[in-house]
Design brief:
Layout (H helix, E strand, L loop, with lengths): L4 H19 L3 E7 L6 H16 L2 E7 L4 H12 L7 E4 L6 H11 L2 E5 L5 H7 L9 E7 L1 H19 L5 E7 L5 H16 L3 E8 L4 H14 L5 E4 L2 H13 L4 H4 L1 E5 L3 H8 L5 E4 L4 H13 L10 E4 L2 E3 L4 H8 L27 H5 L12
């Protein structure tokens, strides 16, 4: 049998790559979780990242930012001062603090990757885009929060109109903090949806700092001021639950008189949709931290971060009464550690031209047992 030289070189290249992947030291990644343990959304982010890290042999360290931007910045800088520095630092960008971490990582020679939040316009002029001012800033992945805010509003409005087609709807919204791009973008999505539905009147949009308790305290005043509200839009599931509790405390039936929804796909939010307590939850972006690890793994093995300006936008999706049971059938027990994440990498899947981090791809992913990996 005659073997062409090009074929032989290809085989040798594949074997060398396999040896390198198998023999290389684990990729060291430090993730700065911006909150404390116990936050439903960020706990889900960490859990999914840990599952990906285990399958890809990534040494993942999770440090906590204590729920404020200054604590998160100090945690990131402390990671950069360690004797054994991480290869990659992953964190969210926070107004007035993000540049400090970019500068610290640059000085330490550590690659940094920003995810989950966009860069505010007032900061963009100073920090530019990945690889421009800060050469060790290699990528940015941000969920399309404008679309998420729009989709949530549309799902809630359409559900209300199905019940009362001729009704003029009064809506109250709760958003996060004033220094969060996710908060501002989700609110912008709400505004865009309201332009499409002139019969919906926004009575007030309240900054509630992502807090269930703060929404609960605000609800009596809003109900007194706007007794005819029927739709409650919340930029997070946590705030949506604060609104529901506030309604119950006021003797109003949230299951009958109101439609409320949030963003984040928390376990509690998914269950509330299944029980018809929430009209929708929009999310899936808790997986973005895991997808970042896939890209960092490939970067470590010589694959550049793709996307315009090394920036990628992930799409969130709505879980509603129409699809919630299909979701629960597959993911109720969060079987993330059973998934073979190697198939999502370009390192182990050389024919992969573009990443596919869609929910459909995850649903169809083989298990580690199917691929012969140890459990």
């Amino acid at each position: 049998m005659t073997v062409h030289k090009s074929t032989a070189l290809l085989v040798v290249g594949v074997l060398m790559l396999a040896l390198r992947v198998g023999a290389a030291e684990p990729v060291r990644v430090t993730f700065i979780n911006p909150d404390n343990p116990g936050n439903p959304f960020w706990d889900a982010v960490s859990l999914f990242m840990q599952a990906v890290a285990t399958d890809l042999n990534i040494e993942l360290t999770i440090d906590y930012g204590k729920g404020n931007r200054f604590g998160a910045t100090e945690a990131g800088l402390a990671a950069l001062r360690r004797t054994q520095k991480p290869h990659y630092l992953v964190y969210i960008y926070q107004v007035g603090q993000g540049e400090k971490l970019l500068s610290g990582a640059e000085q330490a020679g550590v690659h940094s990757f920003v995810f989950n939040t966009d860069i505010p316009l007032e900061d963009r002029a100073a920090i530019r885009y990945p690889g421009e001012r800060f050469k060790h800033w290699i990528g940015h992945m941000v969920p399309n929060d404008i679309q998420a805010g729009y989709d949530l509003a549309e799902k809630l409005i359409q559900a209300r109109l199905q019940m009362y087609p001729q009704e003029e709807i009064e809506l109250v919204g709760f958003t996060g903090s004033r220094d969060s791009s996710a908060s501002l973008d989700r609110s912008q999505g709400l505004s865009l949806a309201l332009e499409r539905y002139p019969q919906v009147k926004l009575r007030q949009l309240v900054f509630a700092n992502w807090s269930r308790d703060q929404v609960l305290r605000q609800m009596p005043f809003l109900l007194a001021r706007y007794p005819d509200i029927s739709v409650i839009w919340a930029a997070s599931d946590e705030m949506a639950f604060g609104a529901l509790q506030g309604l119950r405390n006021a003797g109003r039936s949230p299951d009958i008189q109101f439609i409320a929804g949030g963003i984040d796909w928390t376990d509690e939010g998914i269950q509330a949709v299944a029980q018809s307590r929430l009209g929708a939850t929009v999310g899936g972006h808790f997986m973005d931290g895991g997808w970042v690890l896939v890209m960092l793994y490939d970067h470590y093995h010589g694959k550049p971060i793709a996307g315009e300006n090394a920036t990628l936008r992930s799409k969130m999706q709505a879980v509603t009464p129409a699809n919630v049971h299909a979701y629960l059938d597959r993911f109720a027990r969060r079987p993330w550690n059973q998934i073979a994440f190697k198939r999502f990498t370009k390192t182990h899947n050389p024919l992969l031209a573009e990443y596919d981090f869609s929910l459909e791809a995850l649903l169809n992913a083989p298990s580690r047992r199917d691929t012969g990996e140890a459990q």
